[in-house]
Structures are given as structure tokens and as C-alpha cells.
């Protein structure tokens, strides 16, 4: 399996340049997985074992793209270094091996699909490979009873995910020459009470599925820039609002609006730029069984992940991967080989004994 | 004279592309100004009438470059539209005509040089044409007893100019994912008390030469920008400090430092990026006589101008031009033809009767 992982890591696959790795995986699946069926949407694939009636259908879900610049794979003791090692080729290799193993069993109690999609790191959502895969194969994907998404989770189970809304806020002053500030109004200064009010909104804890999520609102990017010798006539910022599973997108936008109103800034000018929903946690007997069997720590996913998209078509799903969250998108990304092997083993055991 | 102004305006002369207009003016001077002497430094020129011993030496000072995009000259009643009409070709034409007139007088009581320089709009100072002209011809320029700089002043006399210091201030927090703000520290939020303190520093009036200047300090450009989904780990801004004539550059930097200390922000990280001095007002009998004869309103130059460079080599100088300050750098720049004619007339009368 480690050789397979090294092969995957040695194929560069930055977002939107994933044809080569997809071809490699497809060839490998045809060679190693008996009777595999494939569905194609662009550079995304669904590889399925022949379906057996009335068995639960499990999806092993992963993406092919990586963020760091490509570099040649190398190993230092237990650590394997490569672009995408933790996020998330370290999960793809075990998924492929599991598909191979299962295909050889004479007797199994689960159906399996390996859902492989491109451009996970692409934003907006309209460029995301899973988005297009759902558009193209929604009916088939909806037959999944549970999806395990192999994003890096340090071997924990991460459930749900917070929704994320980005809005641009613009506060206008009056530009003028910086030698004569009385001719204008400094937009940054005018924005201070607003920034202060947003800064004072504390994270709001919400417990769902026994784990704690937090609603948070923050000013992230900001700027006032019409020249060094001008009193800025405009201050603009991006506000990012993250919210726990529960509210619909519409409800979240109302709450976001209420938070802005609570700043007391009159006639605030803002535009919601984009918004992805939270992932509800769809509790099913099957999901609970899997979580229980794995016996790993269950955490809230205090971030946005594609679990929300699966959730959007009613597929129970959780994040569970061998990668380290801290390594994701790092320049010299690595993964622990022991974690990869453990990950394979526990999933193999779970599936075998189901 | 209006024809000459139209000719000047019809030659495009954006900063650093001033060869053509300089050639035109040089040719014109050789044709129209008897006995003219010329000194050349790059695209800058000093045109002088033959020197007569023991007469005061007056400099008529102007620049060739314009800021707005070039467009064909047109006239609407009293207004002449053209790139650089107010800033400051509207003064160059009268200067050229004055040189021509004076050269024809059998009897005059003043020496004259028309100091024409390029790249006034260039920053930093090292790209400014007057800077290079002073480097090349400092000895000759120092023989000037008074310089009239034809920058747009709405026909008023503007004396002195404020010094200008730009500094970058960086306030560091700790970057982290915007879904988990507790992992970091928002640099913009951390900067709020500092911004508030700077905003609360009131303009400080200083009366020099009977006119009011103001020391002012402002945050102009600012930004926190390491992605929409990150808590910013750094907030950076430009601070512009303008100060009345009086303090030396070193004294001004000490005062600037004191102002930053007064914000109470500990261990503030800042770098002075560039600094141009204020213009002292060098009062001489000649300058007072000219100001008195012109009888125009005297104002403080609450901005920076090249008068400061002349001042730096001990030349008494003031800004006095027919252009409108509000028109400077405007896309559809214009000047009032009546103002141009009045400007020529009053200078002609002053010089004739001296």
C-alpha cells in the first residue's frame, strides 16, 4: 500500500490539472478490482463493486487535487513527505486497497463505491468537482447509505460542518488630500465602532450530536487604499460568518443580518458574496454503528467541508482520514505511515466484520 | 499668448515623456527671446536673459509634465480644456511671453531666468527633475534672489509648504483559520486602539509669515489581507505626517516618533519610508515687495511643493499661478483664459515698474 501511496504522490495533481492522476487511478482500479464499474463526470469518477441487492451502500469519498507545490516524495523514518500526503492522497491509497480486497471476497455484507472527485480546493462551489459529480450522478449517489470522507482528521471522526458566509462590507467616508484632512472624512476612522462591535461578538457554542460547534463572525481581509497621500474615502472588508449545523441558509442569512444590525452602524452597506450551508448531522443506525465500531474520538468539524454537499442530497456522512489537519496545504506536507496503515486496518476490520 | 498655450497643451507630456515639449519650448525661446542663454540638464532647462550686473535675479519656475491622460484641446467660452491646463502649462505660456517681452526692453531693472524642469510629478524625490537640475546647476540657481513657482494657486500667493513624512506601521497578530478564531489573534482588532489614538490627534495650528499651517497625522492606506478565510496575522498601514515650516527634518522625525509613542501602543513596529522637508519662508525685502505689489491673498501652502527644494538651497520662493488647484490632476482639466491673461498682465506690470 505504501508503494501505491508513493506512486500517487509522485504524480503532480494541482487543482484543475488532475487528468493524469485520474487516469492512473482508473487504470489501477481496472487492473486490481474485479468487476469494477465506473461512472465518469469530467475528471471525477465513481468506481463501484457489482451491486448486491438489499445491502447497505457505503461510499469512500476522496479528492485528487493537492494544494502545495509538487516535490519529489521522500521518507524520513515513519514520515512520508509529498504534496497532498495528508490532504488527502494518504486516504486514497487505503480506499483503493479496500476496494481491491472487497472485490476478492466471496461473501460481503456491504456494497461499495469509491467516489473520487477533482477540484475540491476550487472555490467558488461552482468549480468544485463534487458539485459537478452530484449534478451528473445525483440519482446514483443518493443510493449511498453512508459516506466516509477521507479528509485529514488526525484519525478522529469529525461530524457535521459549519456553514460559511462571506460578505463584503463597505463604509464610505469622503476622500481628500492627506495634508488637509478637514476637507474629507477618513473611512477607516468611521469604521472603527463597527469593527469594534464585530470584534466583541463572542463565539456562540451550540452542541449538536454531542459535540460542540461555534457560531463565529470575523473581519478577515480589509483595506483602505486610494493612495498614500489621500484620506481614504472608502474602507472595505470581508466578513466571514460561520455557523453550527441547524439553521437553513435563509435562517443563517437572517441571523447574519441581525448580527450586523446589532453593531448599531446605521445604513450599513453590505453584499453577501457567497454562502455554503452547514452540514446537518443525519443520524442513522448505520452511521452510529460505524462510529461506535471505529471507537475514535468524535469531534465537531469547525470548518467547511464537502460533507455539506453530501448532506445536501441526504447522504449521512462524516470526515475520517489518516492525514494530519495541521499538514494540510503546508509546503512540505507529510503523513505518518503508521497512521495510513492503521487507517486501512480499522476500515478493513470494520467492513470484514460487518 | 492663448495660441501659444494651445500649442503647449496639444503636445502630450506625461511625466518622463517630456522631450517633445522641451524641444518645442527651446525652439520657441531661441526664435522669440533675443540673446537667450540656455543650460541643459536632461530634459530640464534654464533659459536666461543676458545678465546685467547688480540687478536682482528673478526665477520663473515651472514644470513640463502633466498628470491627466492627453486629450485634444477645446474651448468653451472662457474655459480652455487640456491636460495640464491648470497644472501648469497655463503658467508656462505667460512665463515664455514675459521672457520675450523683457528681452526686447532697452532698459530693465531685473535679471530673469525661466527655470523649466521635467518630472515634477515623479516620486520619490530622486526622480524629480528639479532635484536633478539643482544637482547639476546648483551654483547658478543659487544666484536667484526670488523664485515665482507657477503651480496652480487660484491666483493667490501661497507661501511655504508643509513637510511630509510617510511611514509604514505594521501590527502583528497571529493568523489562523477564520472558523476557529481562538487559534489566533486578529491583527486588525489588535490595531484598533492605535488607529483610534491616531484619529484623536487634532490638527495643530502654527502661524508662520502671518498665515496658518497645520501639523496633521493620518492613517491613509491600510490593509489586512491574507485571504478571506483567515484571521489576519498582520495589519499594515501608511501614516502620513505633515508639519508646518519650522522644524528640521530630524526634529520632525523626533516629533513623529513622539506622536506614535503618545498612542500608548507598546513596541510599535514602524519604518519611515520617505520624507521631504517643509519649506521655511525666507523673508527678504524683495519677496515682501513682490508680494505687496501683487496684492493677492496670501495663503499657507498646506501641501508639499517644489518650493521646498528651492528653499533648501536658500532661494526665497512662493507659489503663484493662474491655474485652479481643484483642476490639478483632473481628467478633463481646464483653466480660465481670463485668469491666464490677468496673470500675465500683473507680472508684466510688476516687472516693468520695478
From TrEMBL, chains A, B:
Residues in the signal sequence: none
What does the UniProt keyword field contain?
Hydrolase, Metal-binding, Zinc
Q: Which residues form a coiled coil?
A: none
Per its UniProt record, the required cofactor names are:
Zn(2+)
List the Pfam families hit by this protein, alphabetically. Answer: M20_dimer (PF07687), Peptidase_M20 (PF01546)
- One example GO MF annotation: acetylornithine deacetylase activity
One biological process GO term for this chain? L-arginine biosynthetic process
Q: Does the keyword Ubl conjugation apply?
A: no
Residue span(s) of domain Peptidase M20 dimerisation? 163-260
Cross-referenced PANTHER family, in alphabetical order? ACETYLORNITHINE DEACETYLASE, N-ACETYL-L-CITRULLINE DEACETYLASE
What is the recorded name of this protein?
Peptidase M20 dimerisation domain-containing protein
Organism whose genome encodes this protein: marine metagenome
